[in-house]
Specification:
Elements: H1 9-19, H2 23-42, H3 48-65, H4 75-93, H5 100-104, H6 141-144, H7 147-158, H8 162-173, H9 178-185, H10 189-213
Helix pairs in contact: 2-3, 2-4, 3-4, 4-9, 7-10, 8-10
Amino acid sequence: MAAAPTASSDDLALVLQLRARDEAAFMMLVERLQPSLIRVARMYVQSQAVAEEVAQETWLGVLQGIDRFEGRSSLRTWIFRICANIAKTRGQREGRSTPFATLAGDDLEAPSLPESLFQGPDEAHPNHWSSLPADWTSFPQERLEGSELRRVIGAAIEALPPMQAEVIRLRDVLGWSSEEVRNALNLSETNQRVLLHRARAKVRRAVEAYLESA
């Protein structure tokens, strides 16, 4: 597994604030990451309530461990690792054993679409679509950017298997790098790539169906 990006200068400045017990800095971080932490925890535990408890335990772990943060990964990757570890432990304690294939969907044998449809690693946007569907250009820009389309995309993501959903959220909604996602969710490069391609394919089909029906 490739190493995650090391901590940025902004990360290190935030770490200093957390070590100084700066409440405003801590609450800003909680507000930014809490929803994603709960979603990750929910993949491993039985209920939303337990997932929220895991998120709270994660923040306690952050405060207890921040003095030992060495900057070998980004701060958010480090936090997500804490969350995943706590969630897995809670899930095992509760007797929940969810196969990875259930979280990911039966999608790990191969990408659902030819890789030629996606930009390569040396192009401007690796793993993104190489071109938009031809018929999208016929729709007004305001329709492509409208709240209804955002709702369609959100619903399509919610309908994905949990691991696919979180990978596409982290990569395409929050803008995480491939390395950060792999390290935060403990995925191999191949699994992360396949999950992302499958998720993008399903979301794209939902968008195309919406535009065609319109």
